Amino acid sequence: MSLQRLALSRIRGTLPGNPACMGCPHNIGLKIVGRVLGERAVLVIPAGCSTIISGFWPREGFDLPILHVPFASAPAVAAGLRASHEASGVDSIVVVWSGDGAAADIGFATLSGAAVRNDDILVIVSDNEAYMNTGIQASGTTMWRALTTTTPVMGKTEERKDLALLMLMHRVPYVATASIAYPTDFAAKLEKAASIRGFRFIHLHSPCPPGWRFDSDKTVYVAKLAIETGAWILWEYSGGKLSINPVSRPYADKAKRKPLAEYLKLQGRFAHLREEDIKAIEEKIEANWRLLKELERIYSG
Ligand code: SF4
Question: Of ligand 1's atoms, which has the minimum distance to the CA of residue 209?
Fold first, then answer.
């Protein structure tokens, strides 16, 4: 879908004046979801920032139908909703719009169960790498060494959980990563996912200004730097084939990546890092690339 078609869509996803923070990445992601999936989309939202963004009665934050559900239940509720639509002939795309806490930690059992059953739902995890809504506590996807309110001194000491690869290993029909800085890439992945039946998963990288401690006018810039430093890799798995996407492809070559420090120094959550910590993160990123390139070779169709 072109940028022009995205702009012209009648459904806007989120509405002006909603309660999101300035520069909120979810607002960007939800606008793309609404504009691509349009009137077929029904959102199932577990507790998180998007619960707030959807607005307080009588004001609405979204122009999409939404079902608010408890933290751990979203994929199970979505699967039931989609089954009822199927039985009653409703043409819908039931979307779990989730944060990382609900998907990677508290709701992982229901996410995994829906994937194992190949339930006919699309799960989008808008990953801001912590429980932002409740006060910036570390989640399973928080980056190593990131400062949060539960990792306030050294930063997180555990490794980041790779949710998209976990979903790939569930052998589901469609898995992709995306970034709010690349709307046409995300839109194309939504269109592809919408054309497939069964369990589909998109892991959307969503930098959060207050949680990561950067200025609210830099959300897209920070998201773009994540790609250009190789810290976030755009890839897609469909029809038995995994491919690293054209946006990320050049950064498979370490020499073409921007210095990682450019990405980290914009974020207050990494202000305490020493040279050796940055080197260690670079090594983790390189190991990630090696793994992805190997998976691309294995799943070459
Ligand atoms: S805390 Fe972050 S993700 Fe949550 S509403 Fe604010 S900007 Fe958006």
Answer: 7
